[in-house]
Design brief:
By secondary structure, this protein is of the alpha+beta class. The chain contains three helices and four strands; from the N terminus they run E-H-E-H-E-E-H. It holds the Pfam family Glrx-like.
């Protein structure tokens, strides 16, 4: 499971989403997108300056950009 933590109107989040959606579709992996503006204060404090943040199976994988090769490797 891949989770993208981002916010509306964020161009880096849009780019990360495109990579995640493509890779997950090809590999048959589920993904979700979460809006950091709806997160609790602790999560906002930890991740706000890093969005988009990508998690694989609940563990932080990347931030700011999604490296397609690294994501594929993590999902194998």
């Amino acid at each position: 499971m891949v989770t993208l933590l981002g916010k509306p109107g964020c161009h880096l989040c849009d780019e990360a989403f495109a990579v995640i959606a493509r890779v997950c579709a090809e590999l048959g992996v589920r993904y979700e997108v979460r809006d950091i503006t709806m997160a609790d204060d602790e999560e906002k404090e930890e991740y706000w300056d890093k969005i988009p943040v990508t998690f694989v199976d609940g563990r932080q994988h990347d931030y700011w950009r999604v490296d397609e090769r690294r994501l594929r490797e993590a999902l194998r």
